[in-house]
Amino acid sequence: MDNSKPPILPIAIVGGLIILGVLVGAWWMSRRSAAPTQPVKAVTSTEAPITTAPPPPLPPLDQMDPMMRSLLGALSNHPELAKWLATDGLIKQLAMAIDAAAQGKTPSRNFKVVAPSASFATVRRNNRRAIDPAGYKRYHALVSAVTSMDASGVAKVYKTIKPRLNEAYRNSGHPDGDIDQAVQAAIDTLLETPVVPDPVVVVEGKGALWLFADSKLEGLTASQKQLLRMGPENVDAMLVWLRSLQAGLKQ
Known about the structure:
This protein has 251 residues and is mainly alpha-helical. It has a domain at 14-27 and 60-113 and 136-195 and 223-250. 49% of the residues lie in helices and 6% in strands. It contains eleven helices and four strands; from the N terminus they run ααααββααααββααα. A four-stranded antiparallel sheet has the order 1-2-3-4. α1 (14-33) crosses α4 and α5 runs parallel beside α11. The radius of gyration is 21 Å and the shape is elongated.
């Protein structure tokens, strides 16, 4: 194992965790806002019709953090999620990460708090350097946090919190932007990531970087290359989940 080079900035669940934080909260909120089941009774001419109160409005954009922490904290005690929920500006972070992923950039800088702490490492394979497969397990907990969610159920409630997410997205430099289009672009880009079996050969680049020896892999977008570094098992799991999410969003 070679740790002589500084670690490459790892990805934090890429598009999966980006959408996880938004949509899990939306699902739980829809459960809380649903009216409790009441026994059916006859309505007489002197009684007013029974009506269902509309769901409460979302808080202003700059007041979304308490709601996000409460909703997501009540849903899961997953340590990776708890780390992220302890930060500020959650929905703004999500919007910025979606924006980055939609452009093919890595969104990992928006989720540094949940980035794996272990260093990127290589091993020698037949006089070549390859990504150390032992390093893939750094991402298992993050990937399992995403893929444990029902993607189709998550997609159905996406629009619950979308107004504030879209507002944050427009405030990030896209005054006429549409968060739906950005999410779809991010998913489309990530779904084009190939699943590459080991060994994944790398070569030394400038400074502290390792580059993919295969020019086709090195030509991928930054977000695709970050996903690829998670290893074939994790990549495959994420792609399956993202396909299910994409199908749910189209329904």
